[in-house]
Design a protein that fits this description.
Layout lengths: L6 H10 L5 H8 L3 H13 L4 H16 L25 H15 L5 E5 L4 E7 L5 E8 H9 L3 E5 L3 E6 L1 H13 L26 H6 L12 H16 L10 H10 L10 H17 L3 H10 L4 H8 L6 H19 L8
Antiparallel strand pairs: 1-2, 1-5, 2-3, 4-5
Helix pairs in contact: 1-3, 2-3, 4-6, 5-6, 9-11, 9-14, 10-11, 11-12, 12-14
């Protein structure tokens, strides 16, 4: 799934935006013109879905603005663009974010909520008391990718539109997990986890995977307290609304936080500001190297091997650095005590 824009969408846009005939498209893609026509009609009917309509309109405008770069056969150049500047444009990041949020939607009763003209979408799920709790916040372009690939189904329309995961979305999530060697398990409902409300989740994090490894004496590679501080850091990262930023290095994120130039609304809630300050304090304490590894593997859920390659480190060194970073992080949180306790 390297291309997040389905073939049917590319055919539709080539016909509508580029003006290519059905026969020409059929010849380019090795199918009959009637097959292309069915794809075009199917996408036209789906434009009643607000997310699909927004995504197609943005792609249409992008293609009309670049007439010399129209999609050809097997093209993977197109990607949905969101109205907010901090939306991730990288295909790998979009796919990862989409899969993480599909995992949220496997919760019983989980809904993806989109409001008209707002750049963010949220996933909510009712707790034991029947009160809707926010589980995840995502850029609108991530929700558009999910709708464009027909992984979610519109449940209720209006000024506020709600979606649920459909069988295609569950199948896409399972294939993603299989392709990346990750365990696929349906999310547990809040009723089965009364001790802790779900705030984020998704495909297993690299820390969780490493925690299952054991040495020759049967001791885990990562102790439970190290796993907990990794979850605590990730929770702060999401609460700070930093998961939409494309910055990969710790120093770059620190510079943004110090200058208070995080893309998004000028006025952030007090909880978000506090979480951003906690992230900044953690990165300052960890320093370069350790901070980069914690940011990539704990916050962005990037694989250890991918982090090693991105930073130019030798093979199998990343897990050692990650363990050292978590040990340092554990000592940092212990020094802070209740001063940096999370909500819930």
């Amino acid at each position: 799934m390297s291309d997040l824009v389905p073939v049917g969408v590319r055919l539709y846009l080539s016909h509508v935006a580029a003006g290519k005939s059905l026969r020409a498209l059929g010849k380019d893609h090795g199918c009959h013109a009637s097959t292309v026509l069915r794809q075009v009609r199917h996408l036209e009917n789906r434009r009643d879905d607000p997310l699909v309509d927004d995504a197609l309109r943005r792609l249409d405008h992008a293609l009309r603005d670049m007439p010399d770069r129209l999609p050809e056969k097997d093209s993977t150049a197109m990607s949905p663009h969101s109205r907010d500047d901090d939306a991730p444009h990288d295909h790998a990041q979009l796919e990862q974010d989409a899969m993480l949020n599909l995992r949220h939607l496997t919760l019983e009763g989980a809904l993806l909520i989109v409001a008209t003209d707002l750049p963010k979408a949220v996933i909510t799920c009712e707790d034991n008391d029947g009160i809707a709790q926010r589980i995840s916040v995502m850029n609108r372009c991530v929700a558009e990718v999910m709708a464009l690939n027909d992984w979610i189904t519109c449940r209720k329309q209006g000024r506020v539109v709600s979606y649920v995961i459909n069988p295609s979305g569950r199948l896409a999530l399972r294939r993603y997990c299989d392709r990346n060697g990750l365990a696929f398990e349906p999310a547990v409902t809040p009723e089965n986890q009364p001790a802790r409300r779900v705030r984020y989740g998704g495909v297993e994090s690299p820390v969780t995977v490493l925690a299952r490894r054991r040495d020759k004496n049967g001791r885990p590679f990562l102790e439970q307290d190290l796993v907990q501080v990794a979850e605590r850091l990730r929770e702060d990262f999401v609460l700070a609304q930093l998961d939409g930023l494309t910055l990969q290095d710790a120093q770059g994120l620190m510079d943004v936080l110090e200058r208070r130039k995080v893309p998004g609304p000028n006025i952030a809630p007090s909880g978000t500001k506090a979480a951003r300050q906690r992230i900044l304090d953690v990165l300052r304490d960890l320093g370069p190297g350790l901070g980069d590894m914690a940011l990539r593997c704990c916050c962005r859920l990037e694989g250890v091997e991918a982090a090693e390659q991105a930073m130019g480190w030798s093979a199998r060194s990343g897990k050692i650095v990650l363990r050292i970073a978590l040990q340092r992080l554990c000592r940092y949180y212990n020094r802070k005590g209740d001063a940096q306790m999370m909500i819930g």
